[in-house]
């Protein structure tokens, strides 16, 4: 009896563990699905010169802007080359881009990307000369300079050329120094706004509810209000810094909602089905029709001592085969797992699944948005 009791207890424990392992909605932090309005990167761009190339730079004849920039740079350094003809191939004109992160102070370093804009064949071994990076307001916010990190190469011989990656684009990790700080008024704001990265009315209401449940216990008041499907307004409590307030809010977790959507990519055969996608009861069968056309032309020779001509006689053979199992399966997608079992029951390849999903959507049984890329 004791052994039987222990066996029954073990089975009950195993059943509870299996039920606990059932898939459930994943909870995420608010900081992973929303961001503070106004806290964003700023794009910077500049025009500069890369020097030190081994004859793979711009040709001044085909890229006159490179020669003009080189002359201007030498003039600033006290070298007069206005009446000289520049024929160097060790210089390349480039566009330098960077993203200025929020709250970046003076003296901090940011990564920059460099891309050739002339007829240079490679930037390997080059060094970027100090370049001003401008924002949309025309002001200089950073200065970039340093040795280029090129991941690609291009080698060419008399009859063959080997290319890997892109040799005319490069990066400089930490290659720019921030010289101007973007004005920040976040600390003085009393009313803040959270913006969802994937706008949704249900998710916005859940975020506001989670924040208010926390604030009623912590601050004895409600501080969040969902304005629309993207924005949640936050009222910062008095005598609490903005940094502390946002840090406490971002740690809260919830289960976001998403629309029922099916995304298919016919080029790669990729099918992504959302969790809430459902299909009304339908019967589906699928078969592949293969048509093969074979051309076997023959040569017709005239009879001996006749005045005929040798001609080519076409001969075409057409065969059609119907592939697939041809089984009729009933699909009733009450949930994602049932839907996948129904599709796998037919035994289809990705191209067949895409065709069936499009047909089910046309029949009005797919209760989701079908996005074809």
Tag the structure with descriptive keywords.
single chain, 373 residues, alpha+beta, four-stranded antiparallel β-sheet, 7 helices
Structural topology:
Elements: H1 2-20, E1 28-29, H2 30-33, E2 34-36, E3 42-51, H3 64-76, E4 92-100, E5 109-116, E6 127-134, E7 140-147, E8 153-156, E9 161-164, E10 169-178, E11 191-196, H4 201-218, E12 224-226, E13 231-235, H5 242-250, E14 253-254, E15 261-265, E16 270-273, E17 278-284, E18 288-295, E19 298-300, E20 311-313, E21 316-323, E22 329-333, H6 336-346, H7 350-362, E23 366-367, E24 369-372
Parallel strand pairs: 15-24
Antiparallel strand pairs: 1-14, 2-11, 3-4, 3-6, 4-5, 5-10, 6-7, 7-10, 8-9, 11-13, 12-13, 15-16, 17-22, 17-23, 18-21, 19-20
Protein name: Flagellar P-ring protein
Pfam families: FlgI (PF02119)
Subcellular location: Bacterial flagellum basal body
Structure description:
The structure is a single chain. The chain is of the alpha+beta class and 373 residues long. Helix content is 23%, strand content 35%. The protein has helices at residues 2-20, 30-33, 64-76, 201-218, 242-250, 336-346, 350-362, and strands spanning 28-29, 34-36, 42-51, 92-100, 109-116, 127-134, 140-147, 153-156, 161-164, 169-178, 191-196, 224-226, 231-235, 253-254, 261-265, 270-273, 278-284, 288-295, 298-300, 311-313, 316-323, 329-333, 366-367, 369-372. The relative contact order is 0.11. Belongs to the FlgI family. The basal body constitutes a major portion of the flagellar organelle and consists of four rings (L,P,S, and M) mounted on a central rod. Its main location: other. It is found in: Bacterial flagellum basal body.
């Amino acid at each position: 009896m004791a052994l039987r009791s222990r066996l029954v207890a073990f089975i009950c424990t195993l059943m509870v563990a299996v039920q606990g392992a059932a898939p459930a909605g994943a909870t995420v932090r608010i900081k992973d699905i929303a961001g503070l309005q106004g806290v964003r990167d700023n794009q910077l761009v500049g025009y500069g010169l890369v020097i030190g190339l081994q004859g793979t730079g711009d040709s001044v004849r085909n890229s006159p802007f490179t020669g003009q920039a080189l002359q201007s740079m030498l003039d600033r350094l006290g070298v007069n080359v206005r009446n000289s003809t520049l024929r160097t191939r060790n210089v390349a004109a480039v566009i330098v881009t960077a993203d200025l992160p929020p709250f970046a102070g003076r003296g901090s370093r940011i990564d920059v990307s460099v891309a050739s804009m002339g007829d240079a064949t490679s930037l390997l071994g080059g060094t970027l000369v100090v370049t001003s990076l401008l924002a949309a307001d025309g002001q200089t916010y950073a200065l970039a300079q340093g040795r280029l990190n090129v991941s690609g190469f291009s080698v060419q011989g008399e009859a063959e050329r080997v290319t890997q990656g892109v040799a005319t684009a490069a990066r400089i990790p930490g290659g720019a120094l921030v010289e101007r700080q973007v004005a920040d008024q976040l600390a003085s704001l009393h009313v803040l706004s959270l913006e969802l990265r994937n706008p949704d009315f249900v998710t916005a209401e859940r975020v506001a509810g989670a924040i208010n449940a926390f604030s009623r216990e912590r601050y004895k008041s409600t501080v969040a209000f969902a304005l629309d499907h993207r924005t949640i307004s936050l009222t910062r409590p008095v005598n609490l810094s903005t940094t502390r307030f946002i840090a406490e809010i971002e740690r809260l977790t919830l289960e976001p909602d998403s629309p029922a959507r099916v995304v298919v990519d016919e080029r790669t055969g990729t099918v992504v089905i959302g969790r809430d996608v459902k299909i009304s009861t339908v019967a589906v069968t699928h078969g592949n029709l293969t048509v093969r056309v074979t051309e076997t032309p023959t040569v017709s020779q005239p009879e001996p001592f006749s005045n005929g001509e040798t001609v080519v006689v076409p001969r075409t053979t057409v065969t059609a085969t119907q592939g697939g199992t041809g089984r009729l399966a009933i699909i009733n997608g009450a949930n994602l797992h049932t839907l996948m079992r129904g599709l796998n029951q037919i035994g289809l390849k990705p191209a067949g699944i895409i065709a069936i999903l499009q047909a089910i959507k046309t029949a009005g049984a797919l209760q989701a948005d079908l996005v074809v890329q």
